[in-house]
Amino acid sequence: MPVEYSNFHLIDHPLVKRDITVLRDVKTEPEAFRAAVKRISNILAVDISKDLQLTLFEVETPLEKTTGYKLSHEIVLVPVLRAGLGMVSGFLEVIPEAKVGHIGLQRDETTLKPIEYYYKTPKNIDAAKVLLIDPMLATGGSGAEAINYLKKRGVKNLIFACLVAAPEGIKKLNTLHPDVRIYGAALDRELNNKGYILPGLGDAGDRTFGTL
Ligand code: PRP
Ligand code: URA
């Protein structure tokens, strides 16, 4: 793997590959698109959770006492509006105790620069493990900006989870935020001159919410 991708972890799973294909297919309608996003998000959440720390405590079964486990840190999911919303329910199914913050960012279609329009996260987010979720990592502008906002609020423990990543976005995050590990379900070839990922899946927000 090239050195600039050392911050990127590709989820290599047959069910993910099957569902990324569903997302790529131009014929997939929003209902089936959302269902596939949810299934991939389940698997992403399981994979990302593998390294979570546990605290031991005593639990009483109907027969005897034994060791139980709970997550040591609070988990906060932060979807980037609007397309990130589609991934939330899949993550919450696997990590139901997670809190959810929101960051509203929209790419300016001409400059491709992200513009912030909403920010609301739980109190004490600085002590939490934060999973920033956005289906598309294209130029990396939105992801880098969202990470800036979270770091300004004191977040130190941060992971970025996406469905499709472009090399350009991975490189940008690696340069600006080398401490943030990226998990993705697909690594695509490149961006076109409008900043869309190729082969990609089109506009994730429009395909999720049927606003094409
Ligand atoms: C999409 C996507 C990311 C961003 C990625 O959002 O959900 O947030 O583009 O592109 P970048 O890496 O070049 O910044 P978009 O701006 O289309 O907003 P939407 O989710 O409201 O449709
Ligand atoms: N945002 C999207 O929704 N799709 C892309 O391909 C790039 C950015």
Q: Summary?
A:
This protein has helices spanning 14-24, 30-49, 85-94, 141-152, 167-176, 204-209; strands at residues 8-10, 54-60, 65-71, 75-81, 99-100, 102-107, 114-120, 129-133, 136-137, 157-165, 181-187, 190-191, 197-198. It is α/β, with parallel strands linked by helices and 212 residues long. Residues 80, 82-83, 105-107, 112, 114, 134-143, 169, 195, 203-205 line the site of 1-O-pyrophosphono-5-O-phosphono-alpha-D-ribofuranose.
Tell me what you see in this structure.
The radius of gyration is 18 Å and the shape is globular. Helix 1 packs antiparallel against helix 2 and helix 2 crosses helix 3. The longest helix has 20 residues. Helices cover 33% and strands 31% of the residues. The chain has a single domain, classed as Rossmann fold. With 212 residues, it is of the alpha/beta class. The protein binds 1-O-pyrophosphono-5-O-phosphono-alpha-D-ribofuranose and uracil. The site of uracil has 10 residues, from helix 6. 1-O-pyrophosphono-5-O-phosphono-alpha-D-ribofuranose binds next to strand 6, strand 9, helix 4 and helix 6.
Overall structural domain count = 1
Q: How much beta, percentage-wise?
A: 25-35%
Catalogue the unreliable spans: none
Largest sheet: 9 strands, mixed
Tally of alpha and pi helices? 6
Mean pLDDT: 95
Helical/strand content category: alpha/beta
User: How far apart are the first and last residues' alpha carbons, in Å?
Assistant: 36 Å
Broad CATH class: Alpha Beta
CATH topology: Rossmann fold
Q: Which architecture per CATH?
A: 3-Layer(aba) Sandwich
Q: Which geometry do the CA atoms define? A: globular
The distinct bound ligands, ions and cofactors come out as: 1-O-pyrophosphono-5-O-phosphono-alpha-D-ribofuranose, uracil
Helix fraction, binned, reads 25-40%
* H/E element order: EHHEEEHEEEEEHEHEEEH
